[in-house]
Amino acid sequence: MKRVFAKPDRWKMFFRQFPKELEKLGLQSLPIVAIISIFIGFIMTMQTKLNTANPLLPVYTTGLVTRDTLLLEFSSTILCLILAGKVGSNIASEIGTMRITEQIDALEIMGVNSANYLILPKIAAFIIMMPFLVVFSMALGIFGGYFVGVLTSIMTTGDYLTGIQYAFVPFYVFYSLMKSMIFAFIISSVAAYYGYYAYGGALDVGKASTNAVVNGSVLILFFNILVTKIMLN
Amino acid sequence: MIEVKNVDKSFDGNHVLKNVSAVFETGKTNMIIGASGSGKTVLMKSVIGLHRIDNGRIEYDGRNLPDMRMSDIRILRREVGMLFQGSALFDSLSVLENVMYPLEMFSSTTKDEMEARAIFCLKHVSLDEKSYGLAPSEISGGMQKRVAIARAIALQPKYLFCDEPNSGLDPKTSLIIDQLIHEITHEFGMTTIINSHDMNSVMEIGENIIFIEKGEKAWQGNKDDIFHVDNKALNDFVFASQLFKQVRQANQ
Questions:
Q1: pTM here?
Q2: How far is B86 from chain A (nearest CA, A)?
Q3: How far apart are CA B30 and CA B28, in angstroms?
Q4: For position A138, what pLDDT does the model report?
Q5: How many CB pairs under 8 A join A and B?
Q6: A12 touching B, CB under 8 A?
Q7: Tell me: the pLDDT tens digits for B45-91?
Q8: How far from B67 is each of A200, A208, B54, B70, CA to CA, in Å?
Q9: Do A109 and B161 touch (CB under 8 A)?
Q10: Which among B101, B136, B156 is the end of a domain?
Q11: Nearest residue of A to residue B108 by CA position?
Q12: How far is A105 from chain B, CA to nearest CA, in Å?
């Protein structure tokens, strides 16, 4: 950890790697985030509407529940669990392959702080990109819910729009963004750890990748409780 | 010059290097030879500092590696070039970028100067200009070895380490790579250490040969001495093939 967060040997090299990581870990995650968020927003609205079909409940309930579920849990925690699979395995397998093909040894022999050069840009880039992914997911999820009103007859778009604006708590967005940045750190650092200390052959890189995803996901679930307790209590 | 003095190294109670002492001379191709499992790779990795030794001294022109702090070791390593068995080129960079990498990391020259130096190194290893923009996966094993040599000499190192440089290469390409290592060693006055069990290489470029057997230095000499040695373990190792037995008979 100390070596990862040391001052880079050359800032120029760090800033050359950094945009590449923003693109690879952030921008390349947009399609999966978009697809999942739209469909989850869609299905969450349908399910909520069908399971709250009670004349005593106000018409805006569905929009409100969809919005708060997306803001509080889906677009931060569940999205991060999904990204732990995509980004975590990507980081672990990339660094693990570099380890077993002696590319990390080559960096060390050159006198490069390999942990810093390889890992720091990934952690920094993913932490920075994560809030954008979360906001993107929130927007698309809510938009997916809106489509239910447009495409089906189970509710009107007006009821949904009323619901997503009702009793809105801006702090929930802040909470969600903070939480997602913590999760981004967990995903990237755990994956980098397993990749960096991989040894053996292709099979071992696969194991490192699996361990990174599983342990990263468990840590996300644990920290979700901790952060929620601290920030929402 | 690199001097190894009374080096011991164990892994979980398994004594791999036993009181090994050797001198790797400047401007010569120094070879570490020995059967698989004899300890030659451990010796090389210990000399580079990838393994921390239990006892002894490893002196790079008087600077004792085991006494150094990590920050000093990293500075020393900037004087070191290494050719790995699998070339260890960076997948994400092109051929030219691979050679420019150590320059960009540690040199304070301009980008044009770095590129000129990288091209000089690539031309020195006779690599075709057409390959400069290609990824390492797009070139042959022999070409990858050349790129790795070009990268290793980019910063004009004082010490060059080669781990099984001919591994996976055909005999003709192996000979070219051997000659290349030999030439640059003399041209740049480097201390080159080659870890090999390729007897063709030993006979071709072995100017200072250290034979390791069961973790101990069993013999030291050069490629001409090797024909007249009365060391059973060495003779069994070097003259294992029919071809080399005939070569030996012809030399005696």
A1: 0.84
A2: 7
A3: 6
A4: 93
A5: 53
A6: yes
A7: 899 888 889 999 999 988 999 898 888 887 888 888 888 888 889 98
A8: 30, 34, 12, 10
A9: yes
A10: B156
A11: A10
A12: 8
